[in-house]
Amino acid sequence: MKILVPTDLSDNADQALNFAVSYAQQQCATITLIFSYFAVYDFAAEAVRMAQTIENNAKAELNKIISKVGRDVEIDFKIIQGTVANAIFSTANNDDYDLIIMGTQGASGIKKNLIGSNTAKVIKESSIPVIAVPFGSSFESIEKIKVAVDLQHDKEGIFRKLIKLTETWNLPYEIIHIENKPNFSKKIIFKGLESYLNENFPDCDFSFEMLQEINTDKGLENYVKNKSDSLLVMFSKDRGFLDFIFKHSHSVKMVYHTHIPLLVIK
């Protein structure tokens, strides 16, 4: 397995890397750190000097990071000139990465908002799974995996991806679905999902809960509010589901300002 970890060299990016290192050790995976920058300049000569300075400083910092964690996992780095999202997408797609792990916040003020927006963009547009790691969370603190299903876009292959990514954690899975009103058809589908998962993944520990909330996405936010020991998993077969999520400001906050790690699988 190959894991891509974007970094802006902030404390939160370092925390996301620590999460990735712990995960990689379980999966026998390799990690690539990616640092991107966008130089603003007026003259070509100035551009060369600025780019060289940025890259030299970044290389020094990245080498320091590798010297600290390189004993625990195989790790290298790339430095790319361009926007954060474009650097991530081009690297992930061209080099066949299996997973992106990134922090949700970096520096304060406007940088914090930009970094949050970059995380949201990657989650929304990435074709490979993404784990967003909020500040203050750690791999070791996760004791449960909460899987939110919409019972519309959930297909067999997406559950197999989930199990492949998380089975080495040996943690219980809590499958949750939220409806805004009683729905007999969805209850039948949910029961079918329960039977399917228990039959096809007998070594996994599943529990199932169907909740009713007037506002389903707000209900999910409330459900995970006090679940600091959990990883939240959301599926998206197509872009429509995440488009719905990103229309609501409180849900955007849940995606990249959430207090628990979020895994999005497509």
Quick rundown:
This protein has 266 residues and is α/β, with parallel strands linked by helices. 47% of the residues lie in helices and 22% in strands.
CATH topology of the largest domain: Rossmann fold
Q: What is the number of domains?
A: 2
How would you sum up the major sheet?
10 strands, mixed
Secondary-structure element series: EHEHEHEHEEHEHEHEHHE
Using the 3D structure, state the CATH architecture of the largest domain. 3-Layer(aba) Sandwich
Overall pLDDT, averaged?
82
What would you report as the Rg, rounded to the nearest angstrom?
19 Å
Shape: elongated
| Largest sheet: spatial strand order | 3-2-1-4-5-10-9-6-7-8
The helix/strand class is alpha/beta
Low-confidence stretches: 106-115, 248-254
Domain UspA: 2-134
Protein name: UspA domain-containing protein
Organism: Cyclobacterium marinum (strain ATCC 25205 / DSM 745 / LMG 13164 / NCIMB 1802)
InterPro entries: Universal_stress_UspA, UspA
Please, could you describe this protein's structure?
It is built from 9 helices and 10 strands. It has a 10-stranded mixed β-sheet with strand order 3-2-1-4-5-10-9-6-7-8, sandwiched between helices. The two termini are 17 Å apart. It has 2 domains: 2-133, Rossmann fold; 142-265, 3-Layer(aba) Sandwich (Rossmann fold), CATH 3.40.50. It has helices at residues 11-27, 44-69, 84-94, 109-125, 156-166, 184-200, 216-224, 239-246, 249-257, and strands spanning 2-6, 30-37, 75-81, 99-103, 130-133, 144-148, 173-179, 206-212, 230-235, 262-265. Helix 3 runs parallel beside helix 4 and helix 4 crosses helix 9 (249-257). The longest helix has 26 residues, at 44-69. It is elongated. The protein is α/β, with parallel strands linked by helices.
